[in-house]
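@channel sequence for tomorrow's demo:
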Amino acid sequence: MNPYDEVQIRPVRVEDAEAIWRITGQQGVMETILALPSDRVEQRRQALAELGPDDHWFVAEVHSTVVGLAGLRVGRGRLRHSGHVFLFVGAAHQGRGIGRRLLETLLDLADNWLLLRRVELTVFVTNERAKRLYESLGFEVEGQRKLSVIADGALADEWLMARYR
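structure tokens (generated this afternoon):
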């Protein structure tokens, strides 16, 4: 049996902090997200403990091991109809449908439980595999954020992408 048939998606818990911290420090993950090499597990624990009612985060587990994280933050006030998502999967588990499962979970929540009309994200312009995943789930490129983030010792561009209902 394929172990990825056994992927479980569940809400994040504070106890997941160390596993998430380990994933964010992996080669093949850190280059594609906004984590820093100096991030500490205590910071992850605190961030998880401080999630509010508009933060909806899920982990993917394979055989009880956390292998990915995705989150949706709902806008406030006049942005209440929209949300911002993020997603990452451990290097050894990429390309196996786990990111898709996590993002589908967030989009189901956005569409059927929160009735969001817009879901947006940013992705490094060099991360073609992620961009293709997002496009396959209905996201469109709205524009390019020039020199928006530091990556590997240089300023890098990001795509701003969104999905509308």
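heads up for whoever presents: Residues 49 and 139 are 30 Å apart (CA to CA).
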